[in-house]
Amino acid sequence: MGRRMRLAVLAAGLWAAAAAAAPRVAMLADLAADLAEARRLGAPVVLVFTSPGCVYCMRLEAEQLVPMLLSGEYEGRILLRKIDITSGDPVVDAAGRRVPARAIAARYRVALTPTTLLLGPDGEPLGEPLLGYNGEMFAYYLDKAIERGRARIAERLAAGCAEAAAYC
Fold first, then answer.
1. pLDDT tens by residue, 47-80
2. What totals of helices (H) and strands (E) does the chain contain, helices first?
3. Where is the Thioredoxin domain (predicted)?
């Protein structure tokens, strides 16, 4: 093997190792468990709806979501998950039933990817979804949505368990 070929193989191996080590946004597997954790934390579940081959979904993850994970600033403040709106793979819904992943998208009326939706601990949306991905401005809109979502959750928790049973 020539020197150039060895360097190319080494570079490819290093690139693959770096890509494998990079954090990824966790796929939604059990919404009921995530909602219970969100309740414990007093935090929203940030659910990003994606689809295979969606270039903007890939950009959103690489340019915004992975840096959010790496920053550590959102740890304990949100639960971040993604879900493929076309997938028939089983996931657990908010009621604890095993359903195809696409049923979660249908439940929240998501047809466009990427769509980012913040859910309260009761599984209900905390506001309007963020549709699409517009680059740098997305971080601003997502941060504002997270602030509003956390405030709504705090208000509901402050209202007391009798009025906000899903949050207690």
1. 999 999 999 999 999 999 999 999 999 999 999 9
2. 6, 7
3. 16-151
Quote the number of domains for the chain: 1
Residue 167 pLDDT level (bands cut at 50, 70, 90): low
Q: For residue 46, give the H/E element and its range.
A: strand 45-50
Report the CATH number at residue 116. Answer: 3.40.30.10
Instruction: Kindly report the average pLDDT of the chain as a whole number.
Output: 87
Count CB neighbours of 89 within 10 A: 13
Report d(CA 82, CA 133) in Å as an integer.
Answer: 14
DSSP sequence for 88-151 = --EEE-TTS-EEEHHHHHHHTT--SSSEEEEE-TTS-BSSPPEES--THHHHHHHHHHHHHHHH
| pLDDT band with cut points at 50, 70 and 90 for residue 17 | very low
Question: What is the Cα gyration radius of the chain?
Answer: 18
Q: Side chain identity at 12, as an amino acid letter?
A: A
Nearest to 112 by CA among 137, 130, 89, 91: 130
In the three-class reduction of DSSP (H, G, I as helix; E, B as strand; rest coil), residue 82 is classed as strand
Which structural domain range is residue 122 located in? 23-167
How many other C-beta atoms are found inside a 10 Å radius of the C-beta of residue 101? 21
